[in-house]
From TrEMBL:
This is LD-carboxypeptidase C-terminal domain-containing protein. It comes from Klebsiella pneumoniae. Residues 3-81 form the LD-carboxypeptidase C-terminal domain. Coiled coil: none annotated. InterPro entries: Carboxypeptidase_A_C_sf (IPR027461), Peptidase_S66C (IPR040921). It comes from the Bacteria. Gene3D superfamilies: LD-carboxypeptidase A C-terminal domain-like.
Length: 94
């Protein structure tokens, strides 16, 4: 998904109310090439725009999703996320 498509998709979710009760956001690494021209809209710009003024932590390039190494997250499970520069973890409660 191109950065402009990601921006549209995230803003659509935001406008539909999907972000209203967030506690945090985890976004896995993208397999798509990023935009290398600094004057063009890139993936980080898309994330910053979509989550601007939403007071929750947003972690990106997380080891989840479709690119190895990845951990599996159970859909609907409650989770606790710890993040620090020297290490991080996710615990899920089923």
């Amino acid at each position: 998904m191109a950065p402009c498509e990601l921006t549209r998709a995230l803003f659509s979710l935001r406008l539909q109310g999907w972000f209203d009760n967030l506690n945090g956001v985890l976004i896995g690494r993208s397999a798509a090439p990023d935009v290398s021209d600094p004057t063009k809209h890139n993936y980080l710009d898309a994330l910053k725009a979509a989550f601007e003024n939403i007071a929750v932590p947003v972690l990106y390039d997380v080891d989840i999703g479709h690119m190895p190494p990845q951990i599996s997250l159970v859909n609907g499970a409650d989770a606790t996320v710890f993040f620090a520069e020297n290490g991080s973890w996710v615990t899920q409660q089923l």
